DNA sequence: ACGAAATAG
DNA sequence: CGTTCTATTTCGT
């Protein structure tokens, strides 16, 4: 954790490129979901509509002049033969997103798999890459085999380790491997392995579920996400070394980032970009309204900011200061400009942190209409909670029989929140404020909404009366409200039944991929494996799930062939492999 | 803990 | 660029 050299008032940035991170972006995701449901659509121009706009369209439609955020009327005029489907119900997208995410997480055995929206996933595949680095036969790199599993050496794919899979940046790569410093050569090999893993995973997404994707491969979330954009759709790009700048080489990271508009950098949003542009251009804020699609705008690049004389974290902190700005923006942004991003790919969660349902209105100013809308939003919220926060109980288990319950809550959100956006709030003096800001109030979540017997509609009605109306009164004590938005949310969910390591399927994978160094330091003479009776109850469930999710691809191999643990050499029967791995992973 | 703000798809 | 409907993180209190 030494990305930033320690210093009081200024920070010295240091590269740290010890990870391999893949960033997946599913191509025109919404359109692909409809194509997966109905493959006949693949050859047709297909667009997905929400309200009055095309939110995305397939590449056949793009060839005919359709594009994102296009008005339906315009789309119809330009391409009357286009198939336009409604995509306002997000359920199918949420389901497809989960399916693909599960495949990526399972195949890469990655503890760290982070979703952004429905169509992006980061994988930190460092452990898997480093394992495979040690398995390479340097005398026959062209005929390498990438092992996806520590326990099953046959699970994986052959590949040619003398070349990258897919595209690289920079293309005109003139520096040969031998020119690079040893650390850069290692990085080169790790990224090369990453490119082949990415290629394999893209193939699996397409073969198993029919989705094409675009991938970026590098050492940080920042760069992996940006570099993927160079070859889309259905492509992948690896940002190749050198990453570190020295006398002979310019850093490819800097070379790549410097041409980007400042606002294109993830983490530099609208506000920060505006302040940076203003600072570089040395003139008051530039307007940002009224731009036509594809129109020009003030272009300030990462390179322009990065190369400003006297630039420091302190200077950036002063430039970027404002209400709500994080205190470490200076260091963070200076890092981003230099392609340094220590942000970890976060662990897979079993439940989201919050669920919210909202709707917007042209006018909402009567109590009757308010009650109806709160009722509708509440019902949708309870439905979503039952989908996203529960796990269906197997009717054959004891638990279901003893409790008579149909499902188990995976989380109990402690907080209920009501948010509104007043359209023209009336002050005491009768003047009008123009604001699109949201205001909210929250309260403890009433426990009755976790009822398994209550009808959604009934629970929703009670939620409105007992919890939401009091919150609404807190928000709008004075009369004369007129709302343009209502939002009802439950927040603060934490993964339950996940008290410590080894208590969920995710950490089983994590354990199985734990760092090689640690595993090698285990005492090889320890007795193993432990009796199944000694395992925690969660083990059985985890074993079943793991078998299902990682071993189902094997077509044969149902024979009892003897398998010896690669760590300690003891024979381990198939059914006990997970337990055995676990034994090694925890001291 | 609560409410707002910033960022992102 | 905007908007809509989300979701996450972080700030100040």
SSE arrangement:
Elements: E1 4-5, E2 12-13, E3 21-26, H1 29-37, E4 46-50, E5 53-57, H2 59-63, E6 70-71, H3 72-78, E7 83-86, H4 91-107, E8 112-116, E9 120-124, H5 126-135, E10 144-147, E11 156-159, E12 167-169, H6 182-209, E13 213-218, H7 221-228, E14 236-239, H8 252-257, H9 270-281, H10 302-306, H11 313-320, H12 329-337, E15 354-360, H13 367-388, E16 390-392, H14 398-403, E17 407-409, E18 415-422, E19 439-444, H15 456-475, E20 483-491, H16 505-512, H17 516-520, H18 538-551, H19 577-585
Parallel strand pairs: 4-7, 12-14, 13-14
Antiparallel strand pairs: 1-2, 3-9, 3-13, 4-5, 5-6, 8-9, 10-11, 15-20, 16-17, 18-19, 18-20
Helix pairs in contact: 4-6, 5-6, 11-12, 13-15
The protein binds a DNA duplex (9 and 13 nucleotides) through α9, β15 and β19.
How much strand?
15-25%
Q: Distance between termini?
A: 24 Å
Average pLDDT, rounded to a whole number, is: 78
Oligomer classification: single chain
Number of strands: 20
Strand line-up across the major sheet = 8-9-3-13-14-12
Q: Show unreliable segments.
A: 1-11, 288-296, 499-587
How large is the count of helical segments?
19
Rg, rounded, reads 27 Å
What share of residues is helical?
A: 25-40%
Biggest sheet overview: 6 strands, mixed
The secondary-structure class comes to: alpha+beta
Q: What spatial form do the alpha-carbon principal axes imply?
A: globular
